[in-house]
Write a structure and sequence with these properties.
TIM Barrel; beta-glucosidase activity; eight-stranded parallel barrel; Glyco_hydro_1; 17 strands; alpha/beta
Amino acid sequence: MSFPKNFLWGGASAANQYEGGYNEGGKGLACADLISGGSHATSRKITAGIKEDLLYPSHEATDFYHHYKEDIALFAEAGFKAFRMSINWTRIFPNGNDQLPNEAGLQFYDNVFDECKKYGIEPIVTIAHFDVPAHLSEAFNGWASREVIDFYYHYAAVLFDRYQNKVKYWITFNEINTATLTIGNFLSLGLNVGESEFIHQPDHMQQRYQALHHQFVASAKVTALAHEKYPELQIGCMISYMPRYPYTCHPNDVLLAKQEENMHSKFCGDVQVTGKYPYYAKKYFADHGFDIVFAEDDQEILANGTVDYYTFSYYLTLCVSADDQVTKNGHSMIGGSGVNNPYLEQSEWNAMIDPVGLRIALNDIYDRYQLPLMIVENGIGVSEDVAADGKIHDAYRIDYLQKHIIEMDKAIEDGVDLIGYTIWSAVDIVSASTGEMKKRYGIIFVDKYDDGSGTLDRKKKDSFDWYQKVIENNGANLI
């Protein structure tokens, strides 16, 4: 195996899916706190304020807020070299635009980072992971307002100053390209969509892409700040990367696959790595009648705030067809042109399982940018329970991770500079897409269920012991 000696093996999480304590320690409401749970994605609601008759998964999640010492000790037992996590904006600035930070929130993350340091675990910290402050949504229409750029800049500046000696690796926005999808309106952009279904949100594409532009500018400004004041810090982007395959070798299928992959998987990375909008995005906006408003110095800001490394999530590949006679199943998130790939198995939630696709993605990304890469989310969601013997036998997860790690190794042999891998997820957490607990990703089981019940007790799965050995041998033994 060819993994470098300092490879950052670990696990990942997100505050709004894991942390809990939504009204403790001075924390304010985030948009995620207004998204209800449900038995499946389409039953979830976005509400104006907290409704007593609804369950909101983020409110307790799996309670890292009260279990962080126990969980980090388990990460250390597994051998983690890194823990990818996020800071909850409203734990630091309850309204998002407060002048002074909440000291109790800052101290909480001090405690978390100190606990990581005790075990030699490197934090990889996302500044904004689907948690726009609810006040900014209500008062400013979220990222549709340029004013939010300054609020975010102030927030990030406080984090850099406070944690400059505790956190080296930072990520500005989680899966920033989710803003290219309707689901990103409320989840990642904090646009005020009113009371609506989580999946079928009101959508104004011009406003959505303008809000995304504001995130680009914010990311570039804080990246430039770090480069100027804290040169030891490494600032990265994070993309939800979903390669598209043409359903056939017909040129129209090939063209559609390239167009969709460009606008979903490559566009945001191109802006954050190169500091400018790519030609194909400009054509896309022109074709759709969008006019992205640039302030006078925006282009200079983007050019001066390019990232140091590139991170991404990888779960699946998509297969697309331009032929109207081919039955579509909507797997493609942009054009609804997705079809089932006959060469791949599907997960319980209909995601195409494609380890080789990860090698393809790694080579494509590295060829495009020539920056160090991290895979900061990769895993499989499965319904699972404790077996009669008191254990969780998740051989399917071991198989999934094993096959993907093999392809990572091949990509490194290809010449890709891959520096880290944090599985999704370290611990069972609430699914961002469906709001379910039963869709379990972790190598650590948490006794928590969709109806909110459960003891929150932690239990190691079979995959925990397997991953421990993988890390111990630096990927040399995957059996």
